[in-house]
Specification:
about 75% helix; mainly alpha; about 220 residues
């Protein structure tokens, strides 16, 4: 219920309380970013836009596995989030059931998403993106756009929501791996973005049914 309220509240804010939407400048901004005409865009805005993608990949590293055990798979929401960001993701988080088990085998996609290489690649990408925005960004211009433009305002707040709701799925993911590390969970909760990336880099691999059976037989 809380996640549904967050979803509805964010929509209401974006439609009625956020700064006005400047359609033509927003379309020009998106065109410049997508066509890599980055000299026309404040590097901070480029970084924020790119970090939305990083967050979607972070969630994918957990929720494609989680979706295997849910009545509703994650992939439609992953596609929706590519166009709508956190608005496309929140309905999945609100409808999924807590699950701390995994059965079956990991296909090629799940093996990659479950690998530490995946977390390392995301972390390196995020560090480059953050460094670019911090080193070359115009903060005065960003504050002005945040206060006066709905797209920039909503995108910035969406990044905050990505961070705030990620702990709701980490507990189940840790339990599936039999990984009891409270300090890791606290890092995810209290260290924005980098704590979540560190989690993907450090977590032990998820055991498929075959691997789990082999370990139980060896211990037995």
């Amino acid at each position: 219920m809380a996640l549904w309220l967050v979803w509805v509240g964010f929509i209401v804010y974006a439609l009625f309380l956020a700064p006005p939407l400047h359609l033509e400048p927003t379309l020009t901004l998106l065109k410049n970013i997508l066509t890599l005409q980055l000299t026309q865009v404040n590097p901070i805005i480029v970084s924020l836009f790119s970090l939305v993608g990083i967050w979607i990949f972070i969630y994918s590293g957990v929720l494609f596995i989680d979706g295997r055990m849910q009545k509703i798979p994650f992939w439609p929401f992953a596609i929706a989030s590519l166009g709508s960001g956190v608005l496309g993701l929140l309905p999945y988080l609100a409808t999924r059931q807590s699950n701390q088990e995994f059965s079956g085998h990991k296909n090629a996609l799940l093996r990659f998403l479950d690998s530490r290489l995946y977390g390392i690649l995301l972390t390196l990408s995020a560090l480059v993106i953050l460094g670019y925005g911090l080193a070359f960004g115009n903060w005065g211009d960003f504050v002005e756009q945040f206060l006066g433009d709905r797209f920039i305002n909503g995108m910035s707040l969406a990044l905050v929501l990505f961070y705030l709701v990620f702990p709701t799925v980490v507990g189940d993911d840790m339990a599936r791996r039999r990984w009891d590390q409270p300090q890791v969970f606290l890092a995810v909760v209290f260290v924005p973005l980098l704590g979540s990336l560190a989690y993907l880099c450090l977590r032990p691999p998820l055991l498929s049914s075959t691997n789990r059976e082999e370990i139980l037989m060896a211990n037995g």
